[in-house]
Amino acid sequence: MPSFAERVRTELLPALEIRSTNPRDPVEVVSVPKPWRLIGAGNYAAVVAHPDERERVVKVYAEGRPGLRDEIEVYRRLGRHPAYSECYDSGETFLILKRLTGVTLYECLRRGIRIPERVIRDIDEALEYARGKGLNPHDVHGKNVMMIDGRGVVVDVSDFLKDEYCSMWDDLKKSYYMLYKPILYRFPIPIPHALLNLLRKGYRLFRKRGSC
């Protein structure tokens, strides 16, 4: 039986079509071969899963998008930590990662799911752990952090080798304690995707910090 990495090379990659027109917007996934399933898409890559592999996912970088080698190095430095995934294998355009199954904080807002303060503290502790490994947490926002069984985890570490300061997580924390905890945590309501997307774009224009 071929290895999972070989199945990625022979079954997934030849039929997977990903486009990236703007590095500040998520990649566009045009086609995914069956039975592979799209899990999510970021600014550089898409994440897909196979039904026979419940513990692993494949992150495939779009053509021309940088960062794969940097992400491998980040996972090497992080080692094993409960708030992060792990890199099991890699190829020229893909990583095979430990699967994290939960709900992103963005989806919590969209679906009206309560976000306990424990989740925020977990992510804070995970980012401090990364700093202790010589990394610089970057691009940490609501779509890149997740809640699993009431605990916080960091989903995307691809930009942790960047040097510049990124305020995204600090700004999200301020919003959590100033607005979310006193209001939306007590009275959770679903927030439409269109409104969340408008807030995201407005935030990026306000900050004008490149990827932050």
From TrEMBL:
The keyword Transferase applies. Coiled coil: none annotated. GO terms for molecular function: protein serine/threonine kinase activity. Keywords: Kinase, Serine/threonine-protein kinase, Transferase. The keyword Methyltransferase does not apply. InterPro entries: Kinase-like_dom_sf, Meiotic_Drive_Suppr_Kinase. This is Serine/threonine protein kinase.
